[in-house]
Amino acid sequence: MPALDLPSFDDIREAQRRIAAHCHRTPVVTSRTLDELTGTEVFLKCENLQRGGAFKVRGALNAVLGLTDEQAARGVAAHSSGNHAACLALAASVRGIPCVVVMPRGAPRAKVDAVRSYGGRVVECEPTLAAREKVLAEVLADTGATEIHPYDDPRVIAGAGTACLELLEEIPDLGLVIAPVSGGGLLSGTAIAAHGCDTGVEVWGAEPTGADDAHRSLVAGRRVAGSAGHTIADGLLAELSDRTFLALRAHVHDIVTVTDDEIIEAMRFLFERTKLVVEPSGATALAGLWKRPGPLPERAGVIISGGNLDLGSLPF
Amino acid sequence: MPALDLPSFDDIREAQRRIAAHCHRTPVVTSRTLDELTGTEVFLKCENLQRGGAFKVRGALNAVLGLTDEQAARGVAAHSSGNHAACLALAASVRGIPCVVVMPRGAPRAKVDAVRSYGGRVVECEPTLAAREKVLAEVLADTGATEIHPYDDPRVIAGAGTACLELLEEIPDLGLVIAPVSGGGLLSGTAIAAHGCDTGVEVWGAEPTGADDAHRSLVAGRRVAGSAGHTIADGLLAELSDRTFLALRAHVHDIVTVTDDEIIEAMRFLFERTKLVVEPSGATALAGLWKRPGPLPERAGVIISGGNLDLGSLPF
Lengths: 316, 316
What we know:
Two copies of one chain form a homodimer.
Chain A: H1 9-19, E1 28-29, H2 32-38, E2 41-46, H3 56-65, H4 69-73, E3 76-79, H5 83-95, E4 99-104, H6 109-117, E5 121-125, H7 129-143, E6 146-147, H8 154-170, E7 176-180, H9 185-197, E8 202-208, H10 213-220, H11 242-251, E9 254-258, H12 260-274, H13 280-291, E10 299-304
Parallel strand pairs in A: 2-10, 3-4, 3-6, 4-5, 7-8, 7-10, 8-9
Antiparallel strand pairs in A: 1-2
């Protein structure tokens, strides 16, 4: 397939059929307090309640279940220190195939344990991108496994888009949908799903000010490489690929940048008022909705992307 | 109405129709990890995601919305230091009527603020049951308000039963339902709802060992007054009334008692694995399911009763 191929709306609907039996149709949660605070009806799509604790399992499942039997037999592999690691291992366990995840030394113990709990094999490497890529290349050469990239892959993007598709099936008349942006896979899939359902939905991204390459790229009209980011939202440090940049430029209205304090405030609200355990990345879209300029439409959808965090170090 | 009147299944269905527009139909959450741990399919009815953060709003709404206009105009009142306080104020705000809550000095600031945030008036008193009852009697005499008891009231019990009714409408073939027991209102309503849907469902209660008057009462075959209880599940310190004892004796298979450590373990599981913020009382039924003797049926329902707690003092 061409290097910059993006999934179509039909690909997202096909992904939904493919993965439905293996992941949750997550609840859409509402809060009158939130509606009063924002002056709009807000619908939280709770991917923190997803299997593996994050939307990532959707893309991983769609990619793994779409492999031929021959490909599948050789397994899958990725380098990741985040939610993609455990979610890929989970997806591989669903199909009963091998999974290797290259993880940097010093990755959180909980993330390493999660991969192993799903039967994945962890290969440690030095904590640099170059080392991660080199070790992954060796694993792929040794095993013949298929690499499943965490976001720069049409199958993964299509899977990620199924969360927004479910949201719009349940709440069809949203004026706006907002999702966090890191590498851009979730936001690309969200945008393609939203505009497949209704071309009138405004799609927004939310990004930490400390890792705002997507915002700067859309402003510049070309993909701007980020410097090393710093944010409490450790799931949002990745950078756009050419593919996700194209999708965002075509579909995304704008990106709101939010500070770590604003992310923590949204996180606290979600814990205290909606009783949801949400990681900083998962609260970023709500922080973006609060900060977004201009009047809100009557109804807005927010993708709560994940809930995996160390409860011993809550930032409040 | 007779002193020991209990709601019928029809009363619970009527309560459901009455309150539906004013509270959430809460999600039913599942977890494959939990299914594997227990060897059964477990369905968590998430009343921590209810308005006001607890099932209590169901009973309060049913009672408040069932008042005549003349009664309603004089308002409602209760003494409470727990979830009933805020939920009654919330229900009164829905009908636009006055609400007074007598609260002991030293009640958690968050609970007092919650009552006020819904427009309720807080009257402080000394932290003894005698003082609470005396001050409430004065409030009732002054205002002509109707007392809404937190559990010893058929309207409140009927409202509480709507959570189980929703659960069984969504998951009709449960072999067992378990709910926490304090004053017994939730468990009474749960049992009447369950047996109205399907006489074959086993209904169980879960109670802290440090406040186990319901367990001892069922064993003794008569209502046993508790001594002052001590448990981390501060929502489960109330005692059965004659009315709720009768309901439990007629409908409840047995009560499992659980230690505070077992409650904390269930709470931690719910935070970490299902991403739900749950107060100790709200995790007690899951602890009870884990500890319950004998083989489990193929499918079990668990009432997660509430999620209001101070996030600054999590017990893990």
